[in-house]
Amino acid sequence: MRVPFPYTDAETRQHRPALVVAQAGSGAEPFLIWVVMITSAENRGWPGDVEIADSRSAGLPAASVVRTAKIATIDLARAEPRGRIAAQELSSVRAAIAARLDMTVEDRTL
Fold first, then answer.
1. What is the pLDDT of residue 22?
2. In a designed cystine with 2, which of 10, 43, 73, 80 is the match (CB 3.0 to 4.6 A)?
């Protein structure tokens, strides 16, 4: 997805790639999505980063990582689909988020 991702140190939002990790809403149609930031693999790594092996399939122009430390809630209507990551990478992202939130596998609802 390409979403207006909020910055923690500014009042602005920048449109950037993000990975949807959960949806929320009433009825069959979700209206909010929880996303984690995707950033260039050239940036300094953070604990919990998950490498995206196939940038092209994910709709990304360069080697990238999912930055699981940066999570936001976005209005679904403001998100633009871009690509997909592999199921194993999604599992790694969810495990990193669960670890960051100190959730056990049994507690995890991501």
1. 86
2. 80
